[in-house]
Amino acid sequence: MTTHKFIAGDVFPTIQLPTLDNNLINLSEPQNGADWKLVVVYRGKHCPLCTRYLNELETLKSRFLALGVDIVAVSADSEAQLTSHMAQLSVSFPIAYGLTIEQMQMLGLYISEPRSEQETDHIFAEPGLFVINEKGQVQVIDISNGPFVRPDLNVLLSGLEFIRNPENNYPIRGMYN
Fold this sequence. Notes:
Layout: E1 16-18, E2 24-26, E3 36-41, H1 48-66, E4 69-74, H2 79-85, E5 95-96, H3 101-106, E6 111-112, E7 124-125, E8 128-132, E9 138-143, H4 153-164
Parallel strand pairs: 3-4, 4-5
Antiparallel strand pairs: 1-2, 3-8, 6-7, 8-9
């Protein structure tokens, strides 16, 4: 299997996926008056760590938005799986569903097969997090091959506060090839 490494500073691709309110959402397009976007890729309904992470993200949503960073979450789950999952989630940010294998590969995500039918019924992406700046470039990338390795959301928020402060003139890191 060929893996694509998503490069810091690259323009985030246009990926439009449905949400439960029957709208298509462009993952990279900020909403709510924000000019940056946080895209959180989660494994799906079957992952209790993902549920906890998304619920924790909701508690920080207003702080991210005050910083000009809008939030969207996405998984490869079906509409029915996301609908069922919403009973466990207390989130007000949009969640898109139906991320395809091709889109996962485009983003350089690790991809897993379910361990059994009890886990889930489809191939899914392991956790990924992308922060997209006002130019559409990926400012921050975090990709994991397991559900227990994700950025601490408070540390991420603190880092974005530093990056977004114009006095710091902080560039996109990791661009040396």
